[in-house]
Design a protein that fits this description.
Layout: H1 2-34, H2 39-61, E1 68-70, E2 75-77, H3 90-100, E3 106-113, E4 116-128, E5 133-136, E6 140-143, E7 157-160, H4 165-173, E8 176-178, E9 181-183, H5 190-196
Antiparallel strand pairs: 1-2, 3-4, 3-7, 4-5, 4-8, 5-6, 8-9
């Protein structure tokens, strides 16, 4: 009987956390949707928003990695390093991606502009072994040594980073540095949050498959 009662309480807590996560995600996404002027784009986003939010909340509650969940803000938490993670040597980056890159793999991209730096999650959607390059869903083509291979017009500098415990945690938690000093974390997009749930913390070479 005591075991049954314990299971009930655990289920109740999970349902409460799930509801709070969903509410926080809706509060975050609705203002963004309100700013979409294109009607067809808005309809497409509205059509999938409920599914993606529920999926993100469900997978966050299944997390088996080193991060903590902030239920009220639907965000990941971990201690921020005093300085940004150091870049691996290009030869090491090239070797790692040449041997281990796979479609759907979440990877960190270092984004820097006017002394402000953060890491952002992206995913591999194309591999070109002949040209020694790979394509990320958002940021485009990179050499396997981490170098961006296309013109960048927005003033930001992008570099593909190695998936490590420190780089992936920084990307998941929205850690930001200004002139190499810690500053206010940024809020992850729903897309990044979904990607964070695909990280296999035991082996970054094998992305998790989300359920549901």
């Amino acid at each position: 009987m005591q075991q049954n009662q314990s299971d009930i309480f655990r289920q109740d807590s999970q349902q409460l956390y799930y509801a709070e996560l969903c509410n926080a995600l809706y509060e975050r996404e609705l203002p963004l949707l309100a700013g979409i002027a294109n009607e067809s784009v808005l309809r497409r986003r509205l059509k999938g928003i409920s599914y993606h939010i529920k999926r993100a909340a469900q997978e966050m509650l299944k997390h088996q990695g080193p991060l903590q969940i902030d239920i009220h803000n639907a965000s990941w938490q971990s201690k921020q390093a005093s300085r940004p993670p150091k870049h691996a040597e290009p030869t090491k980056t090239q070797q790692w991606f040449t041997q281990s890159a796979s479609l759907g793999m979440p990877v960190p991209v270092q984004c820097e502009h006017l002394g402000i730096l953060h890491l952002e999650l992206d995913s591999i959607d194309r591999l070109d072994a002949e040209q020694h390059r790979l394509h990320l869903n958002k940021h485009g083509w990179f050499s396997v040594n981490g170098e961006l291979l296309q013109n960048n017009q927005n003033g930001w500098v992008y570099q593909l980073g190695l998936p490590t415990r420190s780089t992936m945690a920084a990307a998941c938690c929205g850690h930001v540095w200004k002139h190499d000093k810690r500053t206010q974390p940024r809020t992850l997009s729903l897309r990044e949050l979904l990607l964070s749930n695909q990280i296999n913390w035991k082996s970054f070479k094998k992305p998790l498959k989300m359920t549901g």
